[in-house]
Amino acid sequence: MEKTELLLQENTQNGPLYLRVYSYYKDLIATGKLPAGAKLPSIRRCAKELEISRTTVEAAYLQLAAEGYVLAKPQSGFYASRLDYDLTAGGVQERPRSHQVAPAIRFDFASASVDAESFDFALWRRYIKSALRADERLLSYGEPQGEPDLRTALCSYVAKSRNVVCTPDQIVVGAGVQSLLHILCALLGDRAAVGFWNNSFVQGRAVFEDHGFPIRYYTQANDDFSILEQDGIRLLYTSPSHMDAMGDVMPVAQRLKLLQVARRIGCLVLEDDYDSEFRYFTHPVPSLQGLDGGRSVIYMSTFSKLLLPSLRLSFMVLPASLMDAYENRGGLYNQTASKAEQIALCQFIRDGHLSSQIRKARKLYMNKSRALCEAARKAFGDRAMAEVCASGLMVRLEIRSEESAQVLQKRAQDAGIAVRAEEGSADGGGACLLLASAGVPLDDFEIALEELRDVLCKKRE
User: Which CATH number describes the domain made up of 3-80?
Assistant: First the structure.
């Protein structure tokens, strides 16, 4: 072995000398040039041939032994190990990727984002800074159930705004709805069937499926709730303040009927009240939980739409029937929401800013939706009908077309315009698209709708 042969190896030209020795022998063993069981030169001989110190060679050999490339036998020397895997296969293998590149979206009418004008960032920044000055509170982990003062503020707020009946002890705070659903699954016990009114909430459905709950689907607008009993449903996931993509609200009479059936068959109802504050034609309807008196309804809500999607703060109100289970299991789940954000939100609510924020956002989105609706009517003329959805957050565009809404959605996507598809029909046939107003600036509505018209109606010209 020549000294130059070792020092000129491509992968060992840099670094400490002992690492060059180490890399040289590692490569010989990994490539099989030094077979398993072969003896390495003694430390004295290697040091003499390379004209380096014995300490350097010993450090290299010990590193090889520590990583399993050689075996050190007392009073005998160092021997190459048998490797059960190929170290020369080229490293980590990357998954093959599709060569298809998604078109860049220029006008996003499908986004669930929040309009920047709807939120006072400067105001929220002051509350965050104030929360970060609470040194003593920030030195400890957050309460598993959520900060007590925030739960008290939430209790007062939902009682006033949504007629929710609860105490602060029944509120559980978490980072997003999914984190709360994981906790809920642990409280339900038997893996009985869970009913969903539709299959659109895939994130929520995935949590229950991962926990082993069978899933059933129903039509939320159906007044016949006896099917719940037939399928053995023990938890019904519903959003009575937003029953469909249009944002239609479940009437009070239908809510009462649902609660009556749920009580008779012993079924819990999970009320997802994620955007009930936004109504275009009517005032928000009192919560299902309030009508039930808090007995068998799990109330859940989030601040993603009211404030910011990046503010991962949600909460659920547990009925008394689940409180014992939560006291036994809830403490095992660490708090997932930021403690600083909880402190900031608590004071934000106490100072009345949440209510003013809702009024500001509601006015902004309703004005934008009206403007978007007018832009659609102007652009499409008699080729489509446009109306503002009940929630005030979207516009429903019904296009006279023999093609499906999914085909039109794909064509718009390819042109850089994102929209949502809704199965629907009009007299003589039609396809329904949903356009959210939050993700596109007001000044871009006219040009965006004109481009959308040209893309969707060009085959009919």
Answer: 1.10.10.10
